[in-house]
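User: My instructor asked us to take a sequence, write out its structure as tokens, and then describe one feature of it. I'm not sure where to start. Here is the sequence I was given:
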Amino acid sequence: MSLRRTLSELAAFLRKPTVLRGQGLRAPGAWRLWTTLTVFQILVLCAVVVQAMLLWQKAFGLPSPDAFDGMSPLALWGGAVILAPVLEELFFRAWLGGRPRALAALAVTVAGLAAFVALGRGKPLIGLPILAATALAACVLWWKLRRREDIPPRFASAFPAIFYGTVLVFAALHLANYPQVSLLALPMVLPQAWTGVMLGYIRVRIGLVAAILTHVASNAVVLSLALATGT
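Assistant: Let's start with the prediction itself. The structure tokens for your sequence are:
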């Protein structure tokens, strides 16, 4: 597939996101498509989005993120480049394909996390059973619904709002990386917003594993540049 066609398909999807059946990385041409989309995502991120964010940060004297302050290089690379991409893709984008098993598992996970925050945070005797029950329930539902491939009509019709809503939530949660949250800080998560858009498209166009690999590659490049430049 040519670069022009790849970007044309991306633009058409972003104008009106629709649920797609990810072709998987084993499909003919999938790795070439993944490479093209991943390189495009990283180039735009580093050459345009991050530069705009840095200009905004400098103009208003905003602080840099402090989420990883004090972490050893091993922990930093393991957390930012391996663990975070896997967990974030599982939570934010694994279910974007619309399959009932993934939607059910997401609903149980969100309910379980809410119960943990409300009742079990800081209380291991309560919190651990809640997390264990949540994981068990999600696995059971996934297994019971594993053969269903139908996409709920309401999910399909609401998909544009779901897609961009997920992007906004994904970006907004990264405001927690900064010592102070304010309206001025919103442009500081533009990199996460752009990345969320591209990861979402790669997820539905190719598949979850492809989105995880792009997330890993993107974080690795950004972290390497940040460490090299001291930003």
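For the description part of your assignment, you could build on this observation: The chain has two domains: 3-97+152-229, 99-150. Try explaining in your own words what that tells you about the chain.
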